[in-house]
Amino acid sequence: MKILFISHTFPPVFGGVERQNYYLSEELKKIAQVKVIANGKGKKWLFVFLPAAFIRAMFLMPRYDACLLGNGVLAPIGAVLKFFHPKKKFFCVVHGLDITFAYKKGFLPAVYKNINVPSLKKLDKLIMVGNHTIDEAVKIGIDRNHCRFIPNGINFDDLSASSSRNGMEKILGANLEGKKVILRIGRFVPHKGVDWFLKNVMPNLPENYFFVAVGGIVSSKAGDESNFSKCEKAIKEFNLENRTRLIGNIDENDKLMLLNSVDLYISPNVRISGSMEGFGITAIEGGACGRVVLASDLEGLKDAIKDGRNGFLVEPGNAAAWISKIRELLEDDGFRKDFGEKAKKFVADNYSWKNIAKKYLEEINSAANV
Fold it and tell me: What fold, for 2-153+352-368?
């Protein structure tokens, strides 16, 4: 099978979609002939990359059996390519924002709704990163039978780092003696639930519990609005300055140090109209690093976390339930260590990119042979 893979956002740009596209393409290269056309210079280069990628793909497609698009932004390119190459098969990875962006107000969401969504419908198969993403896609008129759920994966080699309390203290600029450290990694946007957690959970946890939130500070033009300033305001309002740290755009090595050293990893997502968690890759990464993971029981997190196997699910927005479960877990060091090892094995068995790439290739082969 010869596959042309196009990605509009790729490392060294940091982010979940970037990592997903990179690891998927690398693993597919091991089991198929794959050519990658990718933008690694960020969103500001999109207006140059998109037409250039289309022109390259037009000339390359005769040599390939199928085209895989990295996300919904590229759907119009895929639809036009399919018009000129009707015998080829076209697929698209669809993330949560690829669907919810069409709900938002403004010029770009309107363009997306009227151009990208119809283009998605013209492709041969849409590979959704979460079952909730499929549900949302159906709401905007995409046929459920046109969709296939394949979860995101993780790369264990890139997550390895030493566990170091002293290393964490240097990164956070804080004395952590006697502290239980809770970590959240993800963009500072409303549905990730960081500001909710700061207002409703942290003030009611013991004084020796220390919360760290790490992630990108986004531009509202790119999708979800940034709520970094609201998180800062919540810290001051509830006098949490000595018990919390907010870090935007952290160094990758520092992120891995935290992920391998903290006492608990959380994804306290909340329901926000027009936004959603497509999958929850950082929750998977937490389990891969042997951390106990606590996540909201909603949207794509339900696909990422299997309750009692690689983490625990808690009712979203239920502060009392979150407080109770966090205290239960952080008061039992032995349980966290044993469960973390079980979670690590579960993630290796179910979410390695090697296994995920095989599922993609099976789906592509299946459609190509119809």
Answer: Rossmann fold (3.40.50)
